[in-house]
Structure formats: C-alpha cells, structure tokens
Model the fold of this input.
Amino acid sequence: MEPLPQPTAHLPLTDREAAAEAERILAAAYHACHPAPTATHYRDDTPLPTHGPTPPVPQPDHRIVPAWAAGIAVASIGVGAGSVGLGCCAWLVLQGLTSVTLYGVLMATLPFAGAAMLATAAGIAVSKARKPVSKTVYEGPVTQHTTHHHTSTTKGLIARTGDTTRH
Done:
C-alpha cells in the first residue's frame, strides 16, 4: 500500500483518502498500547438457598407525609365536596326557577308580606304609645354673636393659599 498525501483542511476528502483515514483510525483504536475495556459489573448466578442460618433483612417502609401536604389533601377534599354540594343546590334552585309563575310567587310571598305588615303596624303603635309628649319652653334674653377670623399663610413665589376661616 502506498502512502497517501495528508488531507488539507479546506478541501474535502476523496473516496480513497476517506477510506485510508478510516483504516488509520481503526488501527489506532485497536493497537496493543490501548488495553481492552474491563467489565465494570459482576452478576452472581449461583442459586440462592431457600433457607439457611441468615435471617432475611427487614426493610421497613415508613413513608412520612409532611403536615402541609396532608393539610392540602384534606382541604382539597373539603373544597371538592363543598363545590359538589353547592353545585347540587344551584341545580335544585335553577330547576325550581324554571317552573316559576307569577301566581306561584304571589302565593309564596303573601304570608310573609302579611306578617311584615302586621309587624310594622304593631311597631308604629308601640312607638306612638311610648313616646312622651314634651314641650320645651325657653325663657330669658337670647344673644347671638358671630365672629369671623381670617388667617392667611401664603408665602413664596409658587404657593398654596391656606386661608382658614373660623366661626
């Protein structure tokens, strides 16, 4: 085999040069100075005894749930149950509202309107019965004195007028 010229970096390889380069890389990889890779694991395939002097090793599984996680779980269950209850209530109310008529509303509210009217009348009667009649009589001279004090606190080129008036 004749030596091949070294490939230049800016020109692509010909088929003959590419084959020679591949052969050189493979020969360098399997050269005796590079030892073969060794196994990094070992599997023992000997059968295990069904019983013997060594008892099995306990491997307890104690999963500890943090308090915040348990709280969130309980809260989410409560919110879910509450939303189902509210949804059922809304469904029942809306089912009832679909069959509402004017006469039905009047008949349902008539007892409440009558009770409210009686309570209002009784409250007015009790209020008038308990209210004392008073007449205030003022004797003597009456003097009225009004004084105005104006204070200005305006200062500076661009200032806010802070007039205060007292009576």
